[in-house]
Amino acid sequence: MVTDQARIRPLLRYLTLLALPVALALSSGCSINSTKRQYVLAEKLWTDGNYTAAVSEFERVYSKDPHGKLGMQALFRAATTQAFFLYEYTDAIRKFRTYAEVSDDKQTAWEAQLQIGEILFSKLELYEQVIQHYQVLLKKKPQSEDAPSFLFRIGKSQFFLWRFNDAVR
């Protein structure tokens, strides 16, 4: 038998989660500190396993600071969370692309590109897009240590598209 207390507990938890962002918003102005607090809130939500709310907060941080270091970090965290925990692959790809285009951090921008390829190949199986994506990466960094795996995935994608001669090449 379910008690009233057992029914109310999830509601209280939900209301607490709703109250926390509101309290933070009211206690801080539209300043850098507000953006930092919002980022900390996003990380707390993420740590608590509330990934949807965390992504929402990361997106807010990015919208407030789209060219700043914190905004870029929030964009990358939102993309990885959507890809690995929420299975929102299309939104994750969009965020990874934005990150790769505007980030000053070349290493992490390259990692974003790798994640796009992984999602296209392993999760969405969009082999035509996989071929195009890895060909672009090979043009950018032909001597990359990842080049052999790019070529393998291009060949495998050609195979899955029934283009056997291209796959062998």
Features:
mainly alpha, 9 helices, 169 residues
How would you summarize what this structure contains?
By secondary structure, the protein is an all-alpha fold. The chain has helices at 4-27, 32-47, 51-64, 69-86, 89-102, 106-123, 127-140, 147-160, 164-168.
Please, could you describe this protein's structure?
The protein is mostly helical. The radius of gyration is 21 Å and the shape is elongated. The N and C termini lie far apart (66 Å).
The percent range for helix content is: over 70%
The poorly predicted ranges are 1-8, 14-20, 22-29
| Overall mean confidence score, pLDDT | 86
Shape: elongated
| Tally of alpha and pi helices | 9
Topology:
Blueprint: H1 4-27, H2 32-47, H3 51-64, H4 69-86, H5 89-102, H6 106-123, H7 127-140, H8 147-160, H9 164-168
